[in-house]
Design goal:
Elements lengths: L3 E10 L5 E9 L3 E6 L19 H11 L11 H11 L10 H19 L3 H5 L9 E8 L13 E5 L6 H22 L19 H14 L9 E5 L6 E2 L4 E4 L4 E3 L1 H14 L4 E3 L7 H10 L4 E4 L7 H9 L5 E4 L1 H4 L2 H13 L3 E5 L9 H8 L4 E3 L5 H14 L11
Parallel strand pairs: 4-14, 6-10, 10-11, 11-12, 12-13, 13-14
Antiparallel strand pairs: 1-2, 2-3, 4-5, 5-6, 7-8, 8-9
The chain binds 2-phosphoglycolic acid (PGA) and zinc ion (ZN).
């Protein structure tokens, strides 16, 4: 069994150039696990706090004071590492030490264990002998909190190659759609600058419906039929539009407002018209009842909670009671530790809620979530398409395919 021999934290920067932390966990004096914490732009109200008082330096200071608590532990024992972390910070949202420490420390531990035991991370996280690849879900067009004025209010239009039989083909189809869309946008607007949003999706000056239209056209021009070889998905990130005072969704860029009922109609018509396979945060983060209306209405679409559930097991239990969704985003840093996130995944699986493991808009080049997506039997892996920090996750899936331990793609 491996033993943690030292821990070190440092201040680094994420893909947006914002400060973040990286943690090294070294086992047996030589096996280095290293993880850099990501961060979101459309952050759910009940997510773990990234850093105390928004100061990564403070997280590092507390980690330094408590390093010894982890030395000597088995780096593959996530429960024990989690419990030791909880002796330092017992707040529900990691407000004392920062969720980023919980994230980086636990994943770096499993990374270190993986090197020491020479077993890939996904195998350490799951004893299941029938693991498969999740379908990559990639952001092809960005708006909302991920792109500037003039772009759609809707945060993300995504593509997923649901008809692909291999992980390589599913990745290549996503690339092809992204490229084709780029050509369409350049032709349509000679002033298009090839600008991209935070996750690499194109960021054109288009209204919501125009954006959906061009994405559908990109798929069709490549000879794909929506709902067959490929499907589109949308992350509405509706809390961004929700105006509590007005009790309405305000689509500022497009210039209209939706009541609660109108929002359900708006979302439903998009799901039908573009044959979406995936609809995330179609209503705001407290609108559990409205989510359950959509879940009932569209049993074959992944009606997915992100800000709604924030990878929180207790909130998920609340959602299960009223069948508020049939799918959930899993973002480890929303929960805090990898142990928290795996407990959340167990609860979801037990209740037949499908899992979509996801990156954040502010990322690092780490690729551990590719392993986490496989081990949690995620249906999709939402990691973007282009940009070094997005490609890193896709490339890791291809490396994993060399182990010959995974039998093709999951069934959606
Ligand atoms: P975030 O957004 O990482 O900026 O919070 C991604 C998402 O909403 O899925
Ligand atoms: Zn989201």
């Amino acid at each position: 069994m491996a033993r943690i021999t030292s821990i070190r934290g440092r201040l680094l920067y994420n893909s947006r150039g914002n400060k973040t932390i990286e943690i090294d966990v070294i086992s047996d004096h030589k096996c280095l696990g290293r993880v850099c914490a990501p961060s979101g732009a459309s952050v759910g109200k009940h997510e773990a706090t990234s850093f105390p008082e928004n100061k990564p330096e403070k997280s590092l200071e507390i980690l330094r004071q408590n390093e010894k608590k982890f030395v000597g532990l088995d780096p593959s024992n996530l429960k024990l590492i989690h419990e030791n972390l909880r002796t330092i910070d017992s707040t529900t949202n990691y407000s004392k030490i920062g969720g980023s420490v919980a994230f980086a420390l636990t994943i770096a531990s499993i990374d270190s264990a993986s090197k020491s035991l020479e077993v890939p991370i996904f195998k350490l996280l799951s004893t299941d002998s029938n693991l498969r690849f999740p379908f990559p879900l990639g952001n092809i067009l960005g708006g909302g909190a991920h792109a500037g004025p003039g772009t759609p209010d809707i945060q993300e239009i995504l593509v997923c190659a649901i008809g692909s039989k291999t992980i390589r083909d599913s990745i290549e189809v996503n690339f092809a759609v992204h490229k084709e869309l780029g050509k369409i946008l350049a032709k349509r607007d000679p002033g298009f600058t090839n600008g991209r949003g935070d996750e690499g999706g194109w960021a054109p000056k288009l209204k919501n419906d125009e954006a959906l239209e061009v994405c559908a056209r990109a798929c069709e021009q490549l000879g794909f039929t929506l709902g067959k070889e490929v499907s589109l998905g949308v992350d509405f990130a509706s809390s961004t539009q929700w105006n509590e005072k007005k009790n309405k969704y305000v689509y500022e860029r497009a210039g209209f407002e939706n009541s609660l009922e109108e929002q359900i109609e708006f979302v439903s018509s998009i799901i039908k018209e573009y044959k979406l396979a995936y609809a995330e945060d179609a209503v705001h983060e407290e609108a559990f009842d409205e989510m359950s209306i959509l879940t009932k209405k569209f049993p074959n679409v992944l009606i997915t909670g992100d800000d709604l559930l924030v990878t929180n097991k207790e909130i998920l239990k609340r959602a299960e009671k009223i069948k508020a969704c049939n799918a959930t985003i899993l973002k480890v840093n929303q929960a805090g530790s990898l142990y928290d996130a795996l407990e959340f995944a167990k609860e979801a699986t037990k209740n037949n809620i499908k899992i979509i493991t996801s990156h954040r808009s502010g990322e690092s080049v780490d690729s551990h979530i590719s392993h986490i997506g496989i081990a949690t039997k995620s249906k999709m892996l939402k990691v973007g398409i282009v940009g070094g920090e997005r490609i890193a996750k896709l490339n890791e899936l291809l490396r994993i395919s060399e182990y010959d331990l995974i039998r093709g793609m999951v069934e959606i």
